[in-house]
TrEMBL record, chain A:
InterPro entries on file: ET-Flavoprotein_bsu_CS (IPR000049), ETF_a/b_N (IPR014730), ETF_b (IPR012255), ETF_beta_N (IPR033948), Rossmann-like_a/b/a_fold (IPR014729)
Cofactor: AMP
Protein function: The electron transfer flavoprotein serves as a specific electron acceptor for other dehydrogenases. It transfers the electrons to the main respiratory chain via ETF-ubiquinone oxidoreductase (ETF dehydrogenase).
Keywords: Electron transport, Transport
Protein name: Electron transfer flavoprotein subunit beta
Matches recorded under SUPFAM superfamilies: Adenine nucleotide alpha hydrolases-like
Membership in a protein family: Belongs to the ETF beta-subunit/FixA family.
Gene Ontology MF annotations: electron transfer activity
One BP term from GO: carboxylic acid catabolic process
Annotated ranges, domain Electron transfer flavoprotein alpha/beta-subunit N-terminal: 23-211
Keyword Hydrolase in record: no
Biological source species: Nitrincola lacisaponensis
Subunit structure, interactors included: Heterodimer of an alpha and a beta subunit.
Pfam families: ETF
TrEMBL record, chain B:
Cofactor note: Binds 1 FAD per dimer.
SMART domains the record matches: ETF (SM00893)
Record's protein name: Electron transfer flavoprotein subunit alpha
Sequence positions that bind FAD: 202, 227-228, 241-245, 258-265, 279
Cofactor(s) recorded in Swiss-Prot or TrEMBL: FAD
Protein function: The electron transfer flavoprotein serves as a specific electron acceptor for other dehydrogenases. It transfers the electrons to the main respiratory chain via ETF-ubiquinone oxidoreductase (ETF dehydrogenase).
Domain Electron transfer flavoprotein alpha/beta-subunit N-terminal: from-to ranges: 3-182
Molecular function terms, GO-annotated: electron transfer activity; flavin adenine dinucleotide binding
CDD domains xrefs: ETF_alpha
Biological-process GO terms, alphabetical: fatty acid beta-oxidation using acyl-CoA dehydrogenase
Annotated family: Belongs to the ETF alpha-subunit/FixB family.
Alphabetical UniProt keywords: Electron transport, FAD, Flavoprotein, Transport
Length: 250, 309
């Protein structure tokens, strides 16, 4: 069984971004970048399936400029077999990303495609669903458990009301939620080994896809700043303030 | 202009968040159609017909739609899409699962979790865990998007009387089937709609200690939420997670107990009107957004607070 995992380079989750003074965008100069946490979980899941003997090959794909090869190397160090970067300097919209991934899927014919549920930069939560639609394959988003039985996939999803379990026929698209697994750290020997694993670069034109940006960023503003309020000295004072000052309790 | 909204429901009742989506649609402007897709959901259609601003209700009632499977509902929406410039749903796990699929079938991009309407093509949404609010313009022939309920005041649930039209198209994929679900049953208000939310974090130490919060919540008529750390540690189920990758809440009062205030948690609650933090670490970042901070051991403070309510 072959698994395709889509991974994205994003700002490290510990960094608090700031809006640029001219409000045209956020300031990403010199900030630490990393593999999107949900993509890391997707890679980990694929590696576990390989370790269990269920999967035989893991291909990781990222769409972006040269620096995202760093994140592809990370994925290779975690246990993926080969990597593909689809080169683009423009920021692709989600439909373009899904179209590129669909083309890759057409040639590679994976049985399972894993994506993160959400990029922590755009907070979009849409690419996996779009890819599944383009391929006309079933989807299980927000997965917290994945079991494979022949060509059947049983996936438990984290939904607003609790948990929902679906059966899907492969090939299928699964997007990962936080509790699917806890990703390992890449060991030093594996980081060294990853440098020798194949990493191919293609252009969107090679794949017959064009990249567009149909969503224009007009401006960015900081969220309404909350100023720290006061410290109360006791529970009695807190209750008094909530009743008489904030008037939020009776 | 005309707008199609996918109603959020559980086959019995129309979820209030639909009323918030209707408010967003009202700001876009245009004739509004509400689609109720489900099974045995006639009652939902009747409630939907009463909501303010709805011109007509479409009812697609079939077993294939019982569990809101994206494969089936997206084809239904695709089939209806011709008549509408905007297709909206709530930014719930249901809406987020289905609408991007619809968009891709239509060959257009989609906007997730929209929190402001500037014009029919220009919207505001949060990015980077709420650390920036982006104004974006979408250049697509159809605008497909999910709406953050807490960002719009709901329209009136009753007083209206729109027509209900039955649809008989049934789309059913052979590639996916529903197996089972484990939905949390609770008498407390729904987290995203509650006026007061009491949330607990890793500081609670274990699941039993959450009883302290449940008791206090019941006294206040509040919903109970949690940080990711509390969910990951197994203290409480996943549906209670508040934050960037959990639920967005904006109650009048948010009481954070034993929560440090990581940016991912703040992303989900910092639009609350009044924030109270109870934490024994006076340096905890949650105090930077709290209107009222109490530096105390929660095991002393919460019982005392509960007794004085
Ligand atoms: C991709 C990604 C997405 C994430 N999404 C979310 C999300 O949606 N929501 C979310 O919440 N987190 C999310 N997180 C996790 C987030 O980064 C934090 O790890 C998490 O919010 C911490 O939870 P906590 O505050 O309960 O735990 P901690 O940070 O461990 O804080 C516990 C607090 O309890 C206090 N405490 C301990 N004992 C007591 C006591 N007896 N009395 C009073 N106070 C006490 C401590 O002083 C401390 O401040 C995400 C992380 C990642 C990487
Ligand atoms: N540029 C990209 N390259 C590869 N995968 C991506 C890219 N953008 C998004 N994805 C995948 O889609 C998932 C969801 O992203 P999003 O829909 O942007 O929130 C991510 O976790 C990745 O798995």
């Amino acid at each position: 069984m072959k698994i395709l995992v889509a991974v994205k380079r994003v700002i490290d989750y510990n960094v608090k971004v700031r809006v640029k003074a001219d409000r045209t965008d956020v300031d990403l100069a010199n900030v630490k970048m990393a593999l999107n946490p949900f993509c890391e979980i997707a890679v980990e899941e694929a590696v576990r399936l390989k370790e269990q003997g269920v999967a035989s090959e893991i291909l990781v794909v990222s769409i972006g400029s040269k620096p995202c090869e760093e994140q592809l190397r990370t994925a290779l160090a975690l246990g993926a077999d080969r990597a593909l970067r689809v080169d683009t300097d423009v920021l692709p919209d989600a439909l373009s990303v899904a179209r590129v991934l669909a083309k890759v899927a057409e040639t590679e014919q994976p049985d399972l495609i894993l994506l993160g549920k959400q990029s922590i930069d755009s907070d979009n939560n849409q690419t996996g669903q779009m890819l599944a639609a383009l391929l006309d394959r079933p989807q299980a988003t927000f997965a917290s458990e994945v079991k494979i039985d022949g060509d059947q996939l049983q996936v438990t999803r984290e939904v607003d009301g609790g948990l929902q379990t679906l059966n899907l026929k492969m090939p299928a698209v699964v997007t990962t939620d936080l509790r699917l697994n806890e990703p390992r750290y890449a060991s030093l020997p594996n980081i060294m080994k990853a440098k020798k694993k194949p990493l191919e670069v293609k252009t969107p034109a090679d794949l017959g896809v064009s990249i567009s940006s149909q969503i224009k960023l007009i401006s960015v503003e900081p969220p309404a700043e909350r100023s720290a309020g006061i410290k109360v000295g006791s529970v009695a004072e807190l209750v008094e303030k909530l009743r008489n000052e904030a008037k939020v309790i009776a | 202009m005309s707008i199609l909204i996918l109603a959020e429901h559980d086959n019995q009742t129309l979820k209030p968040v639909t009323l918030n989506v209707l408010a967003a649609a009202g700001e876009i402007g245009g004739d509004i159609t509400l689609l109720v897709a489900g099974h045995g959901c006639q009652a939902v259609a009747e409630q939907a017909a009463q909501a303010a601003g709805v011109s007509r209700v479409l009812l697609a009632d079939a077993p294939a739609y019982a569990h809101q499977l994206a494969e089936n509902v997206s084809k239904l929406l695709l089939n209806l899409a011709d008549d509408y410039e905007h297709i909206l749903a709530a930014a719930t796990t249901t809406g987020k699962n289905i609408l991007p699929r619809v968009a891709a079938l239509l060959g257009v991009n989609t906007l997730t979790d929209v929190l402001g309407v500037e014009s029919p093509k220009r919207f505001k949404r949060a990015i980077y865990a709420g650390n920036a609010i982006a104004t974006v313009e979408i250049d697509e022939p159809k605008v497909v998007m999910t709406i953050r309920g807490t960002a719009f005041d709901p329209v009136a649930a009753t007083g209206h009387n729109a027509s209900i039209t039955q649809l008989d198209q049934v789309y059913e994929s052979d590639d996916v089937s529903f197996r089972h679900e484990a939905l949390a049953a609770s008498d407390r208000p729904e987290l995203t709609a509650a006026r007061i939310v009491v949330s607990g974090g890793r500081g609670l130490g274990n699941g039993e200690n959450f009883d302290l919060l449940y008791q206090m919540a019941d006294k206040l008529g509040a919903a109970v939420g949690a940080s990711r750390a509390a969910v990951d540690a197994g203290y409480v189920p996943n549906d209670m997670q508040v934050g960037q990758t959990g639920k967005m809440v904006a109650p009048e009062l948010y009481i954070a107990v034993g929560i440090s205030g990581a940016i991912q948690h703040l992303a989900g609650m910092k639009d609350s009107k009044v924030i109270v933090a109870i934490n024994k670490d006076e340096e905890a970042p949650i105090f930077q957004v709290a209107d009222y901070g109490l530096v105390a051991d929660l095991f002393d403070a919460v019982p005392e607070l509960q007794a004085s309510l």
